Amino acid sequence: MHPATLVLGSFLLVIWIGALLLKLSFSTNTGHISWIDALFTATSAVCVTGLVVVDTGGFFSVFGQCVILVLIQIGGLGVMTISVMLFQWIGRSISIRHRMAMQDLFSHTPRADIFQMIKSIILLTAGVEIIGGMILTLHWNREMPLLQAAYTGMFHSISAFCNAGFALFSDSMMRYSGDMLLNAALCGLIVVGGIGFPVLYDLQCWFKMRKRQRCRLSIQTKTVLLTTLSLIVAGALMIAFLEQFSPNEGASVGHRILTPLFQSITCRTAGFNTVDIASLKSATLAMMIFLMFFGASPGSCGGGVKTTTLALLAVFTVSRLRRQRRVNLFKKSIPRETVTRSVSLVLMSTGIIGFVLFMILVGNTVDPSSLNDGQGDFLKFLFETVSAFGTVGLSMGVTPTLNTWGKCWIIVMMIVGRVGVLTFSYILVGTGSVNGIEHAEENLMIG
Prior knowledge:
single chain, mainly alpha, two-stranded antiparallel sheet, 18 helices, 62% helix, globular
């Protein structure tokens, strides 16, 4: 079994187990949930997406919410990561397939300390989530009892760090759009969880070793940090400019700063929202689709084609305009194979999104009158499809109205987005290089 197949199989197994648990009568307050809705919710939780067909806080019981929370944690860390750590703790040996899977998930180059890296990831995740939960508990303790505030704080801390976007409130975080403490805590958790475990481990090693010996950050870490910061700042400025604060007219200056910044951070992979997404302008939604498409960073809890792909394509375009033969980043040349894979990844992802969007539109039975509220139906379904692919979870309100056909395609889209397009391509066609037949060359006009 190839490591890619192992990763996909582990995700599918956990999704199915989660759907069975959510189907239990005591998982919901009503005692009933359809199979498709249970499967959809379990997939959204394991794939840390956040798209929902029912209200998480109102529909599910405490047991059902805890099931969702466990699924989010497993999906955020990765099933393989947790299984490897369990094997390590009980003294079982790890197979070569598991080692290869861990290398593919958490390292851009082979490394001997992969298990030490996984251990650090687990400890770092627990530490960040506990600190975030404590801060959020202080926030919610102002309006609810301590025990309930602690539960609410830990739920949203785990959901934010894993970039899941599940919230216990029907309006997500719209009621707290002007709260500085909550916005800062959630934004910090989302960013830390979205930059990728390899980057976090690299930063941890750099802080520990920079005083004892000469230690440099990897190209991966530098590219992720620079691209993430650029997207956050650019996204916030664009949202503020395009909306001109129309969703929050009459709000304070701090409120107007927090709203664009929060949406810029969360729309790349997290899924929380402090404004009504359906009320935003078409230009803002188009810009958010762009951010959702590229999503988080490699080896993180988020989906999309990743920030490093965007950076590599940008540098590749500039190098071609300058007629340079190699793509260079931070005084290092990127392998041609990596550049080719990035281009292929974007093309394949665009094709998959287009195909799934077409299939949803073909089988759509939603009443058009329920959608025509200023935005076209096509834009609404495109937004939901890209949100599922990027495992973002933002919605314009279309997801709960989808029929079984549409929900099934969104489920497929969430799995593809979480596991990765390249992983699916490995499963379908394998990883071995195939030398095709070479013929005489003849040029072709392009552009």
